[in-house]
Design brief:
- The protein is α/β, with parallel strands linked by helices and 412 residues long.
- The protein has 3 domains: 216 residues, 3-Layer(aba) Sandwich (Rossmann fold); 75 residues, Tyrosyl-Transfer RNA Synthetase; 81 residues, Roll (Structural Genomics Hypothetical 15.5 Kd Protein In mrcA-pckA Intergenic Region, Chain A), CATH 3.10.290.
- Helices cover 44% and strands 13% of the residues.
- The chain is built from 17 helices and 13 strands.
- The protein has a 6-stranded mixed β-sheet with strand order 1-6-5-2-3-4, with helices on both faces.
- It is elongated and about 85 Å long.
- It starts with 5 loop residues before the first helix and ends in a 9-residue tail after the last strand.
């Protein structure tokens, strides 16, 4: 099989990656695949305790899809056996174990949702009970001999619990060993995981090496912050966007994120071309409102199509932007000679919302100015006044204006 040039593969693989261990091993594996024509086996283990997938899960799934698009083999391992142990990663206490039936049911739901991102025709899905359930006790003892207690206690969550006198079950030590055995079973060349999985992935390298295999390269992706911009995305924290949610929900929730998440979300959670990322980073800083709308549309279109994303935008404008807006709101359209961009202070004054730029500045300082319902805090902000959909600017409690831009014919 013919693969893209190694430098192009690396550029795609390294996008949005926190760490590769070891980097030179990854390059060597890609070179070997190029020489032999044999695709690499890229492994991703999924936790069946959380069947509802959100954009946070999509980060590593997208990385697996990138490997598929580069011509390599994706292996999705459903941890139905390890789910009965419970992954201790990042836990202050042991995680409750699941039954086999629960892990299988959740695993099937996981795959169905993951297929919105992965190419299901090119994804091999396996359950790790296929090999772990057949191990004899002597096999488990032999597996356990491949790692020391001292090495296990180097793991951050184990170390903290040990120092705090919190109980650590022996079975919890078996989780990273069982996950490592998965890498042996499928002969993984590469394993993917979030940064919170680094310890488990490195144990996989050690166990593979003890079995006389070439150790896998480990690729860790960042943890996507949730819509609150503080905690990692989690359903329990209600700061998530589910990949099965409606386009309207996706659009509206995306617009609620802090401005400093716009670029990371573009990089980690969308298919925006890598070569466009520098421009998106600049746009996110220069015109966060419009760029956030672009992000919301991009996410909705990825999972529901462009027509649904357009509808989601219109729904947002109708129900959120125009909600509470007077029916007789005035439309303001600037002439081409006014330029492509205008500072928000000039914009408010030219639109008749304030008598002077000084008044506009005071209202912004008082948090009394919003654009499409989003408070404005930067008096130096500039707006594109010629292209894009219309937007509503509110000053104080009762002053409104709809800025109609050149390509928004229906708003005039």
């Amino acid at each position: 099989m013919k693969f893209p040039p190694i430098d192009k593969q690396l550029a795609q693989i390294e996008r949005g990656v926190a760490e590769i261990v070891p980097k030179d091993a990854l390059t060597e594996k890609l070179r070997k695949a190029e020489q032999t024509g044999e695709p690499l086996i890229v492994k991703l283990g999924c936790d069946p305790s959380r069947p509802d997938l959100h954009l946070g899960h999509s980060v590593v799934l997208r990385k697996l899809r990138q490997f598929q698009d580069l011509g390599h083999r994706a292996v999705l391992i459903v941890g139905d056996f390890t789910g009965m142990i419970g992954d201790p990663s990042g836990r202050a206490q042991g995680r409750p174990a699941l039954t086999v039936e629960e892990t299988r049911e959740n695993g099937q739901s996981y795959f169905e949702q993951a297929s919105r991102i992965l190419d299901p025709e090119r994804t091999r899905i396996v359950y790790n009970s296929e090999w772990l359930d057949t191990l004899k006790f002597t096999d488990v003892v032999q597996l356990a001999s491949k790692y020391t207690v001292a090495r296990m206690l180097e793991r951050d969550d184990f170390e903290k619990r040990y120092k705090a006198g919190e109980p650590i079950g022996i079975h919890e030590f078996l989780y990273p060993l069982a996950q490592a055995q998965d890498s042996v079973a499928v002969r993984a060349d590469i394993e993917l995981g979030g940064t919170d999985q680094k310890f488990n992935l490195l144990v996989g390298r050690a166990v593979q090496q003890s079995e006389g295999m070439e150790p896998q390269a480990c690729i860790m992706t960042p943890i996507l912050p949730g819509t609150d911009g503080v905690e990692k995305m989690s359903k329990s924290l209600d700061n998530y966007i589910g990949i099965s949610e409606s386009p309207e929900e996706m659009y509206g929730k995306t617009l609620s994120i802090p401005d400093d998440l716009i670029y990371p979300w573009f990089e980690l959670a969308t298919n925006a071309p890598t070569e466009e990322l520098p421009a998106l980073r600049a746009a996110a800083s220069r015109e966060p409102r419009d760029t956030k709308h672009r992000l919301a549309w991009t996410i909705a279109s990825m999972y529901h199509g462009e027509a649904a994303a357009d509808q989601a935008r219109r729904h947002f404008e109708r129900t959120v932007i125009q909600g509470g807006v007077p029916e007789n709101i005035k439309n303001v359209r600037f002439a081409p000679q006014d330029g492509a961009r205008m500072g928000v202070l000039d914009l408010m004054t030219r639109a008749g919302l304030t008598s002077s730029n000084g008044e506009a500045r005071r209202l912004i300082a008082q948090k009394a100015v919003s654009i499409d319902g989003e408070k404005i805090s930067d008096a130096r902000m500039e707006m594109d006044i010629q292209t894009g959909p219309s937007f509503v600017i509110k000053a104080g409690k009762r002053r409104f204006a709809r800025i109609v831009r050149g390509d928004d014919e229906g708003a005039a």
